[in-house]
Amino acid sequence: MSPESNIERVVPVMVPMPAERPYSYGVPVGMHIEPGSIVRVPLGPREVAGVVWDGEGELVPASKLRRISHVFDCPPLPAEMRKFIDWVANYTVSPPGMVARMALRAPAAFDPEPPVEGIRLTGLQPDRLTPARRRVLELAENGQAWTRSGLAHAAGVSSSVIDGLIEQGVFEHIDLPAQPVVAQPDPGFGRAQLTPEQEAVAARLREKVGQGGYSATLLDGVTGSGKTEVYFEAVAAALEQGRQVLILLPEIALTQAFLDRFHDRFGARPAEWHSDLAPRKREKVWRQVAEGQVRVVAGARSALFLPFSELGLIVVDEEHDPAYKQEDRVFYNARDMSVVRARIGNFPVILASATPSLESRVNAEQGRYERLVLPVRFAQVAMPDIRAIDMRRSPPQPGGFISPALLEAISQTLARKEQTLLFLNRRGYAPLTLCRVCGHRFQCENCSSWLVEHRFRKQLVCHHCGHHEPRPEACPECGTLDHLVPCGPGVERIAEEIDHHFPDARTIILSSDLIGGVKRLRLELEAIANGEADIVVGTQLVAKGHNFPGMTLVGIIDADLGLSNGDPRAAERTFQLLHQVTGRAGRTGLKSTGLIQTYQPEHPVMKALVSGDAEAFYAREVEERRRAGLPPFGRLASIIVSAGTKPEAEGYARELRRAAAHAPEIDVLGPAEAPMAMVAGRHRFRLLLHASRRADIQSYIRAWTARAPKPRGSVRVQIDIDPQSF
Ligand code: ADP
Ligand code: ZN
């Protein structure tokens, strides 16, 4: 039999590989295939799961044509998702196969789970009634179906007792669905009484959802103004229309309180989606989203690639958050791609933040987004009183990092039995260790970065590649004992200083390297919210969305930290982060204070934080970007060339540069060493593209890289459209 004789037609199949286009496969006669079908196909020596794509398969010589080996019993990937995948691939200059891969992240979910065998009473009586049998019958009396083992366990009998009853016909077998039915959120469940200002905004959002069609809204409201309460109304409206909803959150694994809050409002929890989820759980959610059983997902950025078939609203909470940017394989910003997804699906998207990104503000100013504002906190709760502490005038004690003014405020807060948050965006004890005798500095052998001392772990750790080594007693360079000194503070060192000043206070350190991982962090966050700590010393983890009712003082240890890296986005980012951190204070109406330690109190960021007036700050930032033609007024892309050796990386970066074509609205800058010149043993060079808004930067890059010599050896090229730092 010739191989083509039993093939009906040829279809394109997108495989989860760095493939630039779908591959052609034959459809065996009788196999039912449609665009979106999830199939298994042979690829090289293996088999992989792929998606039947749109259009015709490319012609392949019959002798080379391989066929689809299996169609999964699973809803096809919707047309909107296929279009979205193509769009993201095109925009990010990534192989579409690698984008499709993100939508196929739950392989075990492609086949339905087999039904579970259950048992149910028939009404027949057993021949003899033993005490064990009586317990079983009493439990099963209400007619409910049980699994064999579940009933045995509940009745405290061995399963042979159940088997005996089945044999006598007292129980019969039935099939139970493998998937428990998911509790459905009820739009009318716990509807809040909104304030008139909130209601006006909610009404507008409901109207937009009701009208249907694409729209983008920037929900701009101060911390505690009720943004969540208000966008829940849009969620309710979408649910009433029978649509699915996606809520994106930057740190969903740590904001479990959000799930409870959603439960209070809708009577059921949303499905959760993030990378810390157990594989079984992920597979369940993936399948239930595809089948439409799950109506609302609260997820991290990757939730954007779930196979929703009836998606009708996306909310991006904390839309300014850098965590929305993925910088691995496919470089994308989930905030921006949410807007694209909404446009493709023809439904509304809501971007919420107390400190919107400059891009979103400009989009609103230029009429692309509608801006809805909630200017005051709910229930007349006052914003914290923010003051700058000029560290030149109020210096800390020698060896310390906390100024007398901040220490005094902490002491008063303790006396009132309220909580203090001290914020420093630096893990560990000290960012640099040096030898006082010879000046030796401990540096990572794989990265261009210092090793950070972690005193609890008694290690020097690289925060870029994870390399760690024990902290020695003697200098490895000059051999002198006991003259290694820590330079600068990390959260551990601040906690030590606090212990010294307030030995009786209960102090908690909160940072992502806490032993015990996400679980432990969740417990600590809960403990803080319950008032089980007096002072919290934390990194940016504490900034995101938590509600600590007793927190009335926030101290920023080093407000200048993020400003010095030469990145044009540094001021915006610092403002957003510090505003969000100080916004943790006074959420429940107690008088609250934010104290900002800075050496440059006259800096526009500090002035904006202190005055609470962000408008002037944003206007100035926007103007600077406009003048420099930087995003969103111009376009940027960065191309990182990395390799195992510096000459390889630099050599290829130069070859690539030489292959660049001249284009009127695109400048190619570099190559230069990347801001992190070495990471995890790879040397990095960067080419930066700066273009006008009109320029088709993607087509330019595609043509360029196609023309350039292929990377050889260990050389790797990463393309980052709209890079975070520039
Ligand atoms: P944001 O998302 O803007 O920070 P939230 O929606 O979290 O604000 O609201 C802040 C606090 O005020 C929350 O505890 C919330 O439950 C409460 N709140 C806001 N609006 C209302 C309302 N209309 N009725 C009752 N509580 C509200
Ligand atoms: Zn390293």
Automatic annotation (TrEMBL):
Q: Which Pfam families match?
A: DEAD, PriA_3primeBD, PriA_C, Zn_ribbon_PriA
Gene3D superfamilies listed in its UniProt record: P-loop containing nucleotide triphosphate hydrolases, PriA, 3(prime) DNA-binding domain
- The protein's superkingdom reads Bacteria
> Matching InterPro entries, A to Z?
DEAD/DEAH_box_helicase_dom, Helicase_ATP-bd, Helicase_C-like, P-loop_NTPase, PriA, PriA_3primeBD, PriA_3primeBD_sf, PriA_C
Bound cofactor: record note: Binds 2 zinc ions per subunit.
**Residues that bind Zn(2+) 2:** 444, 447, 462, 465
What is this enzyme's catalytic activity, as reactions? Couples ATP hydrolysis with the unwinding of duplex DNA by translocating in the 3'-5' direction; ATP + H2O = ADP + phosphate + H(+)
Q: Which residues bind Zn(2+) 1?
A: 435, 438, 475, 478
Is NAD included in the keywords of this UniProt record? no
Which Gene Ontology MF annotations are present?
Answer: hydrolase activity
The record's EC number reads 5.6.2.4
In this chain the Helicase ATP-binding domain maps to 208-374
Keywords tagged on the record:
ATP-binding, DNA replication, DNA-binding, Helicase, Hydrolase, Isomerase, Metal-binding, Nucleotide-binding, Primosome, Zinc
Coiled coil regions, renumbered to chain: none
State the family it belongs to.
Answer: Belongs to the helicase family. PriA subfamily.
Q: Which NCBIfam families match?
A: priA, PRK05580.2-2, PRK05580.2-3
How it assembles, according to the record, is: Component of the replication restart primosome.
Tell me the protein's name: Replication restart protein PriA
What is the source species? Chelativorans composti
The taxonomy runs: Bacteria, Pseudomonadati, Pseudomonadota, Alphaproteobacteria, Hyphomicrobiales
